[in-house]
Specification:
InterPro entries: Aldolase_TIM, FAD-bd, FAD/NAD-bd_sf, OxRdtase_FMN_N, YqjM-like. With 770 residues, the protein is an alpha/beta fold. It is built from 27 helices and 31 strands.
Length: 770
């Protein structure tokens, strides 16, 4: 078998070593365009987990690397001279040049052919090769030549970064943040060998331009950066090596192979350096490709299928985490405003993989500092109170905890009347300890319903039915209950979801919207609202607000999300009007803002109002970040006490990127740009995620939807898991008939947590510290 490897980076070399070891008679040649001792960049980073993999695959390579790396267990976050240390991280740094030399040595020992200063322009010269491995980096010429076959996509990110070295000694991986008159700069730094450290400087494009940098002027860059990080460098010089300012390219490929060519390393997929995974990713993929070749030999179709099966999911997970981390750094100026411990916690948990509990297992002292700062700011005497179980006040309404029941349609009302189902549904969650219940969307009129099973608040009979629910909750729990009031707009008059997804009713009522655009090709074209329609709808919203107060609700949430009537005015995808209610975001806001203001004036001034918005349409030419900021600011100025930040469902052809806590970045954007309290939601499933979100400052309240549907006692179980008020269980407000269960639940959940933590500690990779 003959294999040609184009590109002599760590991935290509390691693949060659592993394959040649297993198949000694395989002819493997590596072609590298640079000299053997050329290396760009300074140090590379590996985790304990990756080192363990190296040990099992090629102990000789592992020993060579291990004897030359700088190991650290500590990570520091520093801002403007203030610093905190977090231990238990387990990483090592190694000189990229040294790593390449060690891997070259191992290649020669195994009989791999190495050809340097061999630039490959034409791969037709390798037509006799069974496999051609394109390991030629970010700017892969081979990938570009066959880009349509691979389905290559490259997205250049906005931040600017420059890679340098220094003689400054470091005893921990350190993020140095500095605020300047131009904006925030960060230095990602780590020591990779004695007397040498890597320094990657990063800032936003706007700040970079304000500071007057140029791409290739290394002398100017050194002068300016050395002044900004004067204290951190402590008199040590910066060292350049083609240190030009760049913007990071996020590279993906729909297919990793074409014919007998296969992609490896950065040519295949890039991962932002902020999670230290570029070289790691390349070498781990090299392992999978080698395993596939060893298993299937010259059956290239089977080799490449197995390679993708082994690695695609893992690569995409790492890329997603890297992109989330990258996004955090693109918004440094938003996060820098937090108090220091919260800011440091945000740095540590930015990619969502690391959580509060995860950090507590690594280094219990750091989360305690973060908790103490949070509780001090919240005015709590107990500085270690779980964030989820701290109280929160909106106007004169005090919530006992920060967990919210998200609006979830029940489709169980008859003629708009709630019934025993709703009493059970909302009552059980209230007794289960929830801080705030937000009801399902409740219509202002019969034609404002989504389905025939949706509740209403347009007449006295409905007020009395709702009052039965609110009275039960106030009598039997400490929960507060808010009503989401809305109008379905163009998304109304549909069957129950179990009868069909967005299927219109056989005898559908007339629909209205901002513009005459149907939600899908099955539904009717809505009527474009006139000024007279707006007057009637506004009056109905005001009546609903007054009825909500009569029904005993503690709060109102205005439905202005997911493409319903008011939301249809806000998105450019659903509002194509040419009058005063279309065009600019100021115009698109006019009608929704009028409705809110008139409701606010009619509703009890002691009670809060929320607005739920969609902060992203997940579709081309949809609502922009600037639009969302303008919308949130307008509602805040009009008296909204909190913004419930959701996304999507504006149009049927949306393509959301869904995952754990996937909507929290949008809440973060609104909260920390507009400086208004927010509620967040979206695949939030446990108390650790809730605490992580709150400590991060991404939201003030956290809403759970499907998590609560089959677990009405989620909060009680979480309180026991956290041992919240274990010394004063009566203060939990559990109804007396249920209170006896705490003597069983608290020890059980406490023991369960200890067992889980023990398992996590046992699964932690062994340290490779020398």
């Amino acid at each position: 078998m003959k294999i040609t490897v184009v590109g002599g980076g760590p991935g290509g070399l390691y693949f060659s070593i592993l394959t040649k070891k297993a198949i000694p008679d395989c002819d493997i040649t590596v072609y590298e365009r640079n000299k053997a001792d050329d290396a760009f960049g300074f140090g590379v980073v590996f985790s304990d987990e990756t080192l363990s993999e190296f040990l099992t695959r090629d102990p000789k390579s592992y020993d060579l690397i291990r004897n030359r790396f700088a190991y650290w267990d500590e990570l520091d976050v520093a801002r403007n001279g203030e610093k905190v240390r977090i231990t238990g991280n387990g990483f090592c740094g190694c000189s990229r040049k040294t790593l390449l030399q060690l891997l070259q040595q191992r290649c020669l020992e195994e009989g791999v052919n190495l050809k340097f200063e061999a630039n490959v322009d034409d791969i037709s010269q390798f037509k006799d090769s069974d496999i051609i491995v394109a390991a030629d980096g970010i700017n892969s010429a081979i990938r570009e030549q066959f880009a349509s076959d691979f389905g290559t996509n490259i997205e250049l990110q906005s931040n600017r970064f420059v890679w340098m070295g220094s003689t400054k000694p470091l005893d921990a991986f350190t993020y140095f943040f500095r605020e300047t008159p131009h904006g925030t700069f960060v230095a990602h730094t780590y020591q990779y060998e004695e007397g040498m450290s890597t320094w990657i400087f990063e800032t936003t494009d706007e700040t970079w331009k304000k500071a007057g940098f140029s791409v290739t002027d290394e002398e100017d860059t050194i002068n300016k950066i050395s002044e900004i990080f004067k204290e951190e460098l402590d008199g040590h010089a910066l060292i350049t090596n083609r240190s030009h300012w760049r913007q990071f390219p996020v590279i993906t490929n729909k297919k990793w192979s074409a014919g007998n060519i296969v992609l490896l390393g950065d040519s295949k997929a890039t991962a932002h350096y902020s999670i230290g995974s570029g070289t790691k990713l390349a070498m781990e993929c090299a392992i999978a490709l080698a395993d596939s070749v060893i298993k299937h030999k010259t059956d290239t179709k089977a080799v490449f299928e197995n390679y993708e099966k082994l690695r695609r999911n893992r690569v995409e997970v790492i890329q997603h985490a890297a992109n989330v981390s990258l996004e955090w750094f693109q918004n440094m100026d938003r996060h820098i405003q937090h108090d220091f411990m919260q800011f440091a916690f945000s740095v540590m948990t930015r990619a969502k993989k690391v959580t509060f509990e995860n950090l507590a297992l690594r280094d219990p002292s750091f989360p305690k500092k973060v908790l103490a700062e949070f509780n001090t700011n919240a005015g709590n005497e107990n500085l270690q109170t779980s964030p989820a179980f701290t109280s929160y006040k909106l106007r004169n309404v005090k919530l006992e905890n920060r967990i919210v029941m998200s609006p979830m349609e029940q489709y169980s009302a008859v003629n708009g009347l709630v019934n025993d189902w709703h009493l059970m549904h909302y009552g059980s969650r209230a007794v289960g300890g929830i801080g705030l219940i937000l009801t399902e969307a409740t219509a202002i009129s019969p034609t404002g319903r989504i389905t025939p099973g949706c509740p209403g608040i347009w007449n006295n009979e409905q007020v009395e039915a709702w009052e039965r629910v609110t009275d039960f909750i106030h009598l039997n729990s400490a929960a507060k209950i808010g009503i989401q009031i809305g109008h379905s707009g163009r998304k109304g008059a549909v069957k129950f979801p179990w009868e069909g997804n967005n299927e219109p009713l056989d005898n559908a009522w007339g629909l209205m919207s901002a513009s005459p655009i149907p939600f899908n090709d099955k539904m009717a074209v809505p009527v474009e609202m006139t000024q007279e329609d707006m007057d009637i709808i506004t009056s109905e919203f005001v009546t609903a607000a007054q009825n909500a107060d009569k029904a005993g609700f503690d709060m109102i949430e205005l439905q202005a999300h997911h493409g319903f009537l008011l939301a249809s005015f806000l998105s450019p995808l659903t509002n194509i009007r040419t009058d005063e209610f279309g065009g600019s975001i100021e115009n698109r806001l006019k009608f929704p803002l009028r409705v809110f203001k008139e409701m606010r004036a009619a509703f009890n001034s002691d009670k809060p109002m929320s607005v739920r918005i969609s902060a992203c349409d997940w579709a081309e030419n949809g609502i922009t970040e600037a639009d969302v900021i303008a919308i949130s600011k307008a509602f805040k100025d009009a008296g909204a006490d909190i913004i419930n930040v959701s996304t999507g469902l504006t149009v049927a052809n949306q393509k959301p990127v869904v995952g754990r806590m996937w909507q929290t970045p949008f809440s973060d954007m609104v909260r920390n740009t507009v400086h208004v309290p927010t509620i967040t939601a979206g695949y939030i499933q446990d108390i650790d995620q809730i605490n992580t979100i709150l400590l991060n400052g991404r939201a003030d309240l956290v809403a759970l939807g499907k998590t609560l549907l089959l677990d009405p006692s989620f909060v009680r179980n979480a309180q026991a898991y956290e041992q919240h008020k274990a010394d004063n269980l009566e203060a939990l407000g559990i109804p007396k008939p249920y209170s006896f269960a705490t003597s069983h639940l608290y020890p059980y959940r406490g023991g369960e947590r200890k067992m889980l933590e023990g398992m996590k500690k046992a699964l932690k990779p062994l340290t490779h510290k020398k």
